[in-house]
Amino acid sequence: MFKNLSPGAIGISADMHQGMELAKNAGFDGLDLNIGEASQIAEEKSVGYLKELWEEAGLKMGTWGFPVAWNGSSQQYYESLSRLPALAELAAELGCFRTATWVPPSSNERSFQENWDFHVGRFGPAAEILRDYGHSLGLEFIGPRTSRANAKHGFVFTMDGMLGLAAAIGTGNVGLLLDAWHWYTCQSTLSDLQHLRREDVVCLHVNDAPQGIHVEDQIDNVRCMPAETGVIPLGEFFKILHQIGYDGPATVEPFNERIRQMSPTDAAQATKDSLDTVWEQAGLA
């Protein structure tokens, strides 16, 4: 696995060139691909130009944002789905084969079964297109009890539940966007991680949790930097992922106001430093 920067995930607004500079200067191994920007650059210049840009930067590609409006109206869904093949083809040409999105843990409109059928119906056709171009789709479960407490209907909010949804989609290329925060807040265990297969994990998000707050009272957008508190056992978490052969990006997504107040350069460096600490704790350094 490799240390990956997603500028937006730490509150930085950056285009591709700026993101590359931040990632290189801080010592990251990879950077997420903005597929919309990449498509525009390819149209204005060429795919070859883009490839050279990434080769010169010496960075791996993390994930590209899932561009389908799967939770929108039928019109929005089918219009965005019609654009997916071209974007999937471009991402494949560039060598980025992981895309991901998150799944709400509840609904006020649909019962559990209705919601299950809806998700299978919406993700299935998109996953088939992605499979044609060699891509995997990661689905993120949202773990905190507080994120679903006031909803009329609950939905999938655990690691095993999301793996079940991926299996129901049935295309063979759908797995997890595994976020350490959601793994912790849905009260999964290290033993649960040991049962994962390499292909179950498409991409990885890393955070820590505030101290002194019961796991059932944690709030989704109040997190800490990796290894900041030790509430989430990230050393063991990463050790197991390494053991199962996960070789994709590890991306920090802390929703942390202290980091957001830093300059982009300092924020990127602090983020990289936090990953370095996790690597040391896991014995991967």
The figure for the number of domains is 1
What is the CATH architecture descriptor?
Answer: Alpha-Beta Barrel
User: What is the C-level CATH assignment?
Assistant: Alpha Beta
CATH homologous superfamily placement:
Divalent-metal-dependent TIM barrel enzymes
Number of strands: 10
Strands of the widest sheet, in order across it, are 1-2-3-4-6-8-9-10
Helicity, as a percent range: 40-55%
Short description:
This protein is an alpha/beta fold and 285 residues long. It is built from 11 helices and 10 strands. The longest helix has 21 residues, at 74-94.
Describe the structure in your own words.
By secondary structure, the protein is α/β, with parallel strands linked by helices. It has one domain (2-282): TIM Barrel. Helix content is 45%, strand content 15%. The chain has eleven helices and ten strands. The chain has helices spanning 16-26, 35-44, 47-57, 74-94, 112-132, 159-169, 180-185, 190-194, 234-243, 257-260, 264-282; strands at residues 2-5, 30-33, 60-65, 98-102, 106-107, 136-140, 153-154, 174-179, 201-206, 249-252. An eight-stranded parallel barrel has the order 1-2-3-4-6-8-9-10, surrounded by five helices. β3, α4 and β4 (98-102) form a beta-alpha-beta unit. α2 (35-44) crosses α3 (47-57), α4 (74-94) packs parallel to α5 (112-132) and α5 crosses α6 (159-169). 40% of the residues are buried. The mean pLDDT is 97.
